[in-house]
Amino acid sequence: MLVIFIVYLLFTQAICIDKDDPHACLDTNLSEYYCCSEYEDLNGKCTACKLGFKSRNGQPCMPCPENIYGHGCSSLCECSALHRSC
Predict the structure, then answer these.
(1) Could you give the dihedral angle defined by the CA atoms of residues 27, 33, 36 and 39, in that order, rounded to the nearest 10 degrees?
(2) What span is annotated as the signal peptide, if there is one (predicted)?
(3) What torsion, rounded to 10 degrees, do the Cα atoms 43, 45, 50, 22 define?
(4) pLDDT tens digit string along 46-86?
């Protein structure tokens, strides 16, 4: 039983985000810090998403949806299919 508990702890414990990280947000319900939108947790440090990626409230950065591009996936691609480079 102890082995199962230890394995559970290893897989459920996340690296804590430093409350002094300028890109950390507080979950007031859980009293825990997470990386704010447009940042992801990389080894306990909030790191900005790359251009063409976005994140929301502690989730990892994900690529922009089709026809969306730019910082935080904030721009709409309005080019024709023949000229598409988005």
Answers:
(1) -150
(2) 1-16
(3) 170
(4) 999 999 999 998 999 999 998 899 999 999 988 776 665 55
* 28, 10 contact by CB (below 8 A): no
Q: What share of the chain is helix, strand, coil (3-state, %, to 5)?
A: 20, 30, 50
Question: Rounded to an integer, what distance in angstroms lies between the CA atom of residue 20 and that of residue 86?
Answer: 37
Strand partners for 68? 76
Q: What is the pTM of this model?
A: 0.69
Q: What is the pLDDT of residue 42?
A: 93
Q: Return the sign of the alpha-carbon dihedral for residues 41, 46, 50, 51.
A: positive
